[in-house]
Hints:
Blueprint: E1 11-13, H1 18-27, E2 31-35, E3 39-44, E4 47-52, H2 57-60, E5 64-69, H3 72-82, H4 84-87, E6 92-99, E7 102-108, E8 114-119
Parallel strand pairs: 1-4, 5-8
Antiparallel strand pairs: 2-3, 3-4, 6-7, 7-8
Amino acid sequence: MKTNANALYPFVPSGPDFDLAIRFFNAIGFETAWNAGDIAGMKWDNAYFMLQKYENKDWQENQMLTIEVDDLEGYYAELVAMDLPKQFPGVRIKEPTDYPWGREIHIADPAGVCWHFRESGA
């Protein structure tokens, strides 16, 4: 292939409450780049995804995405301080854990999608 791939923009289901999902992603660091009512572009520095107003439990509970951050421990401390599970029903946060591929925290978003956050360069 002579063409370079420059970015990947996965679609992520919002679950039953699209507006709640947007507020959740804003709280954890993403900004809403645009919102068309049933789909929104969510951006955080070089990370970007399309939040789709869609509910499918099988998809939601089996989708996983990985994001690299500069300071995993600091980010985890910020998340804990926000008490996200109290603000957003269904949200779960797993403490930093070492795996053969690096150190990660896991966050289940309000729809049940599992987000892996890992330290850059790990």
